[in-house]
Amino acid sequence: MTAESPIKIFAAENSTYLAEDITRAYGTKLGKYTLQKFSDGEFQPSFEESVRGAHVFIIASTFQPNDNLIELLMMIDAAKRASAYKIIAVMPYFGFARQDRKDKPRVSIGAKVVADMLYATGVSRIMTMDLHADQIQGFFNVPVDHLYASSLFVPYIKSLNLENLVIGAPDMGGTKRANAYARFLETPLVISHKSREKANVVGKLTVIGPIAGKDVVIVDDMIDTAGTITKAAEIMMERGANSVRVVATHPVLSGPAIERIKNSAIKEVIVSNTIPIAKPCDKITVLSVSNIFADTIKKVYHRESISGNFIV
Q1: Do 46 and 78 touch, CB atoms closer than 8 A?
Q2: Does the annotation count 194 as an active-site position?
Q3: Helix (H/G/I), strand (E/B), else coil: 34
Q4: DSSP code of residue 139
Q5: Under 8 Å between Cβ of 20 and 14
Q6: What percent of the chain has pLDDT over 90?
Q7: Residue 83: how many CA atoms within 13 Å on its side-chain side?
Q8: How far, in Å, CA of 276 to CA of 258, rounded?
Q9: Of 194, 198, 214, 299, which one is the catalytic site residue?
Q10: Nearest to 103 by CA among 23, 198, 180, 245
């Protein structure tokens, strides 16, 4: 089988907004797909065109992961049973990625469970962006194309022309990602050290490094309730920072996140569109990942290297 086998791109229901942009950038159209829903919440996916012998790319961000993940698994199964040649799950946002280890006794490693389910269902390859932890790639028994939104964010940060730019890490776990930005942009790095009272609740937070007179850009993989970044911004401004901006790939923005950002000291939050933003906010700037995924899909389909897509 060669790359001349047909390519078919489909979208899970809640990822259609992004898939349409990706297929437009690719130069094709979305495949025909329906999702029949039953009154008790059960649903059944159906491809409304042949996928026999095709490279099938299924675009499905698993935000609000439960239903979206089950829909993706069922789409993979449907494609396999319809004799697709290869099935590639394109997951711009990989739900359950925060559960990448046992951080206390008697808990599940959710990211590994998801990886096992995708493999057992019949996926041939995974394509995702800015995983919460790089080691999640090792949970899979199939190739993983781990993309980075830095090719979007770095040019945007440069366009701001901030003379006193400093890159900030929101916590100790985010230092590797933030340090990569700092090295590439040749700027200092400051680190926020936090302790959590429980999930989504920040306890004590301190900032390590000089920030007086600096324009700080905090870099993270996701914003959930926005508790960490808003508290960090407040402390940084109190310590004399000129401005605080936040760059984060995945705008989960659950619970009070939007209101916290609106009422915070943060000047701007720059995110991608891996997850749709439910409520508009003047402080939030959205950059599209459609060209990145379209180009990667094209290179994977034609068996070309994607390493040139990475700048950080």
Answers
A1: yes
A2: yes
A3: strand
A4: G
A5: no
A6: 85
A7: 5
A8: 13
A9: 194
A10: 198
Residue 104 in tokens: 């206390």
DSSP letter, residue 96? T
Confidence of residue 199 (pLDDT cuts 50, 70, 90): low
Q: Which pLDDT belongs to residue 1?
A: 42
With a CB cutoff of 8 Å and minimum separation 6, the contacts of 164 are: 213, 214, 215, 242
Tell me, what's the pLDDT at 266? 98
Per DSSP, 1 falls in state -
> φ and ψ at 211, to 5 degrees?
-130, 0
Per the CB < 8 A criterion, the answer to whether 257 and 222 are in contact is: no
| Lookup result for tokens 């025909």 | 32
CA distances from 260 to 54, 133, 138, 256 (A): 46, 26, 35, 6
Does residue 241 have a pLDDT over 60? yes
Residue 238: CA count within 13 A, CB half-sphere: 9
Structure-block tokens of residue 60: 């499905």
3-state helix, strand and coil shares in percent for the chain, rounded to the nearest 5 = 35, 25, 40
Residue written as tokens 């078919």?
A: 8
d(CA 12, CA 88): 13
